[in-house]
Amino acid sequence: MSRPEQEAPPEIFYNDSEASKYTGSSRIQRIQAEMTLRALDLLSLPPSSYILDIGCGSGLSGEILSEEGHYWVGMDISPSMLQIALERDVDGDILLSDMGQGVPFRPGSFDAAISISAIQWLCNVDSSEHDPKYRLSKFFQTLFSSLKRGGRAVFQFYPANDTQRDTILHAAKVAGFTGGLVIDDPESKKNKKYYMVLVAGGSPGDI
Amino acid sequence: MKLLTLNFVQCATRDCAGRQDAFPLAPQNVQLAAQETDLDPDFMANILAKIDWPGLETSLNQLGRPLTFTKEQVEQDQNLLKELHSILIETTIQEGELVCPRCSHIYHVKDGIASFLLPPHLV
Ligand SMILES: [Zn+2]
Q1: What is the rounded CA–CA span in Å between residue A111 and residue A89?
Q2: What does the sequence similarity comment in the record state about its family (chain B) (predicted)?
Q3: Local structure of residue A121 (DSSP, 8 states)
Q4: What ipTM, to 2 d.p.?
Q5: Domain that holds residue B41
Q6: How many domains does chain B have?
Q7: Is B106 on the interface with A (CB under 8 A)?
Q8: The domain that contains B87 carries what CATH number?
Q9: Who contacts A67 (Cβ-Cβ below 8 Å, separation ≥6)?
Q10: pTM for this predicted structure
Q11: A186: buried, middle or exposed (CB in 10 Å: 19+, 13-18, 0-12)?
């Protein structure tokens, strides 16, 4: 099976037709909802939290956050995806932004961050200006600062291989995060899911 | 973009990232819109602790809608909390520009979506 992040950069891959195909698929909606609920589980937040959704796309994960009583700001690099989020009238606020250029929020803005199926895109090399190491470190440093102390971030992602998985985890730790990986259904090739659970300072708790 | 979000974004350019004086971004040539939403007192209490109040005062002065109350007054008065909800959550910037007070970089807002994509030389 081919991986979308090997075909084209996200803002090109998720053009108008791919974005609407993606959002309209009931299978994708269901899987996204399940993974968002699982990520929320791992965040264990009080209601009415203020959450950053990284790679929010058309707002499939955001809708779940709203249903669970939270408020969110989403960032995504694909204008087509954000256009669909607008048409679907999501409750969150959305920004056009490239996570590899950093998270443009002042320190301590958010109670938590969530990211569903997006962070593996950071490891892409789309042009000579895209140094994945620099982009990963810029991303995690600015994310760390944008979270309140002790705030959690949960990333569901699809690492292409162990090296990529370790590179991402290493970049997060260098930026000051503690935490690690939670793997659901590790024995199942089809359902295996990776969640990186990070804490911005404070105690790592029970992860 | 909600006025709430304006109180949290800051300039993302290489020279400004993480600098306090790169905040708040100044709205310019903006069209505002209002969208009714339910008031959630718990969220307002949460957000009241996070708001940069001087930054909010600056932004509202720039928009020509100066605040008529202080943070302490909001904490004691449900009606003011409603008013703050209407300012922060129900008021959105639909079109216009957000200008960094430090490096003057301009971020464009279209259809209510602010673009923080930077040209490579500013990253
Ligand atoms: Zn600036």
Answers
A1: 24
A2: Belongs to the TRM112 family.
A3: G
A4: 0.97
A5: 3-122
A6: 1
A7: no
A8: 2.20.25.10
A9: none
A10: 0.94
A11: exposed
